[in-house]
């Protein structure tokens, strides 16, 4: 069993979700509100470690709420900085490392957050989904970046995709999906204009 996975990303017209090593904000306020509605509906929000190191995202719901979804960081070697926003006390936090992480780092992290060890080199996303489901997570929002998106799409773990396209072109950068994968066909399930952005909804062809 696995949680229902929603991938939500904002990108430039030329398919970039950031410049290399740099955060770019593509979402307008309406898109942030749309994203928050998804955040409110999930048990956890998942990101890759590069996103944490570059963006230091809060991954909380903008409006003040008593409870935010858990934050799940995919981080083979436990590189998440101790002061990262995703480790603060605004939500439950889970750092997922692999067997490659140093035992001392796992111990350190375990003092301030839940730690799951899953996979040999990188995190095994299929096994992790099973583990998270067993821990009661039925619905998870995936918020990138490009490498994690690739692993999740490649393993056919995504159930719903939202891509918000901003009216900007930035040239080279981080792709929505980084690296090469076999073609995955999708079904267009919705088109919505929000201000100057267009939000596309896709479902995977099963
Ligand atoms: N526009 C948007 O909506 C949006 C949203 C989120 C992020 N971003 C942007 O995305 C960029 C980061 O993307 P990124 O592609 O460089 O990195 P990423 O996907 O955030 O993180 C990838 C890293 O996660 C770790 N990892 C562990 N197990 C993995 C697995 N099974 N599959 C994939 N990764 C695994 C690996 O690092 P280790 O081996 O070190 O563990 C890997 O290099 C940032 O610039 C950020 O601004 C944009």
Structure description:
With 206 residues, the chain is an alpha/beta fold. The chain has one domain: Dihydrofolate Reductase, subunit A. 22% of the residues lie in helices and 30% in strands. The protein is built from 5 helices and 11 strands, in the order E-E-H-E-H-E-E-H-E-H-E-H-E-E-E-E. The protein has helices at residues 29-40, 49-55, 103-110, 125-134, 146-154; strands at residues 4-12, 16-18, 44-48, 70-74, 93-97, 114-117, 139-142, 160-166, 174-175, 186-194, 197-204. It has a 9-stranded mixed β-sheet with strand order 6-5-4-3-7-1-8-11-10. Strands 2-9 form a two-stranded antiparallel ribbon. The longest helix has 12 residues, at 29-40. It is globular. The two termini are 16 Å apart. The mean pLDDT is 96. The chain binds NADP nicotinamide-adenine-dinucleotide phosphate. The site of NADP nicotinamide-adenine-dinucleotide phosphate has 31 residues, from strand 1, strand 2, strand 3, helix 2 and helix 5.
């Amino acid at each position: 069993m696995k949680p229902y996975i929603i991938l939500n990303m904002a990108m430039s017209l030329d398919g970039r979700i950031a410049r290399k090593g740099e955060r770019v904000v593509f979402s307008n306020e309406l898109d942030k509100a749309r994203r928050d509605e998804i955040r409110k509906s999930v048990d956890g929000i998942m990101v890759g470690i590069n996103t944490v190191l570059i963006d230091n995202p809060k991954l909380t719901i903008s409006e003040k709420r008593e409870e935010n979804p858990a934050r799940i960081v995919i981080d083979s070697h436990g590189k998440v900085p101790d002061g990262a926003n995703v480790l603060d006390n605004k939500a439950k936090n889970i750092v997922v490392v692999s067997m490659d992480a140093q035992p001392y780092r796992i111990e350190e992290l375990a003092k301030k957050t839940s730690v799951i060890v899953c996979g040999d080199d990188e995190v095994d996303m299929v096994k992790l989904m099973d583990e998270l489901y067993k821990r009661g997570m039925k619905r998870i929002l995936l918020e990138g970046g490009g490498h994690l998106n690739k692993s999740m799409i490649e393993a056919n773990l995504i159930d719903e995709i939202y891509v918000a396209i901003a009216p900007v072109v930035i040239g080279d950068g981080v792709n929505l999906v980084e690296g090469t994968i076999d073609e995955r066909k999708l079904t267009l399930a919705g088109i919505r204009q929000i201000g100057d952005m267009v939000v596309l909804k896709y479902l995977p062809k099963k």
